[in-house]
Amino acid sequence: MTETTAPQSPQDRGPDRPLPSPPIARALLAGNRRAAGRVISLIEDQDPSVESLLRSIYPHTGDAYVVGLTGPPGGGKSTLVDELTRVIRDAGARVGIVAVDPNSPFSGGAILGDRVRMMRHAVDPGVFIRSMGARGHLGGLALATANTIRVLDAMGMDVVLVETVGVGQSELEVADTADSTAVIIPPGLGDGVQAIKAGIMEIADIFVVNKADHPQADKVVSDLRDLLRMNPGGQEWTPPIVKTIATQNVGLEDLWMRIQQHSHFLARSGELEHRRRLRLEREIVEIAERRLREQVLTPRTETKEFREMLALAAARLMDPYEVAEMILPAGASARR
Q1: Nearest CA among 41, 44, 39, 66 for reference residue 54
Q2: Intervals of the chain under pLDDT 50
Q3: The domain at 10-14+61-269 falls in which architecture?
Q4: I need a labelling partner for 219 at 20 to 30 A (CA). Which of 128, 150, 161, 290 fits?
Q5: What is the 8-class DSSP label of residue 238?
Q6: How far is C-alpha 152 from the chain's CA centre?
Q7: Distance separating alpha carbons of residues 38 and 284, to the nearest angstrom
Q8: Helices 192-203 and 217-230 sit at what angle, rounded to 10 degrees?
C-alpha cells in the first residue's frame, strides 16, 4: 500500500483469476454495491448458501489493506473514521468501512448511528459502509467480520477500516482481523490507560490520542510513553503516538501517514505475510471446529444416551471428562 499506487479495477486485481459462475458473485467483483450488501446480509444471517459465494470470490481477495480501530467508548472513533476516510479518499484509494456495533436491546439489530454520522460518504462510489451487530453470532463475530472484509476486498476496496465498540474480548478478537490496529484513547479517563493496558499493549500498532485539545491530552501521551518504555525491548516496531482532533480535521493526515509507514514496515520485514498466515490458520481452525460441533458433537448431545450420562455426571457417578470422551468420535481420545 503506497500513496502513489493507483487503485486497480476489481477485474484487474491479480493475474489468472477466473470469474466465478454465480451472477451475484460476478456482480460483486464488478463493484456492484447491491450485490455486496446482499452477500453481507447472507453472512450476518448465517445463510447456508453464503459458503459457495465466499468460496467463489476467495481467489479474487487478498489485495485490500485492513486497518482496525478500537478503544474505549467515548473516544470519538466514529468521527475519526469518518475523517480518516476523507483523507484516504483524497489520496485516491477506495475505502470499505465495517462498523461493528453494539446490539439494540429492543430489536437485537445493529445500531445505525455510525452510518448516520457518515452520510456524506454515502453518495461516494469509492466508499462502502456497513454496520454489523453481534446478534446471533455467539462468539462467531470475528469470523463474520472476516468474511465481510473479504467481500469488500473482492468488490475492489483498497483499504478496509474496521471500527469496534470497545476493548472487551470480542473487540480484541475483531481487531485481530486487521493488518494494522490503531487504538484510540481519549483524555479524561482518569486511570483509564492503566486499566486497559493489559489488553491494549498486545494489539496496538499505533496509538491515537483523539480530542487532543482536551487539558488532559498531554498526560495521556505521557502515560502511553511510560507504558511503551516499560514494554520489553527487542521489537522492531515501536507504536507511534498520534494526536488528533477529529472534529476539527486535525492530525488525520499524520495518522494516515503512520498507517502507511506501518504497512511498509510489515511488507519489508515479512511480518505482513506472517500475520495474514496466522489469521488464515485461525480462521481455518474455527471453521473446522464449527463443522465438528454442528456435524458431530451437537447431534451426540441430543441423544438419550447423552442425557443418561449427564444425569450420572450430575449425580457424581461420572465425571465431565469421561462424558466428553464418550461423545468424541471413535479414536479421538487416543489421539490426544
Answers
A1: 39
A2: 2-7, 9-11, 104-112, 114-115, 138, 335-336
A3: 3-Layer(aba) Sandwich (3.40)
A4: 161
A5: P
A6: 12
A7: 24
A8: 50
Cβ proximity of 122 and 31 under 8 Å: no
Cell numbers given for 90: 483524497
In angstroms, the CA 45 to CA 204 distance is 31
Q: Is the separation of the CB atoms in 101 and 117 below 8 Å?
A: no
Q: Tell me the C-alpha distance between 138 and 187, whole Å.
A: 33
| Separate counts of helices (H) and strands (E) for the chain | 14, 7
Domain edges within the chain: 10-14+61-269, 301-335
pLDDT digits (tens, 9 = 90+) for 47-84: 989 999 999 999 999 999 999 998 877 788 889 999 99
At residue 192, what is the residue type?
Answer: G
Grid coordinates of 333: 481420545
d(CA 53, CA 312): 45
Strands of the 65-70 sheet, one edge to the other: 127-133, 95-101, 159-163, 65-70, 180-184, 206-209, 241-243
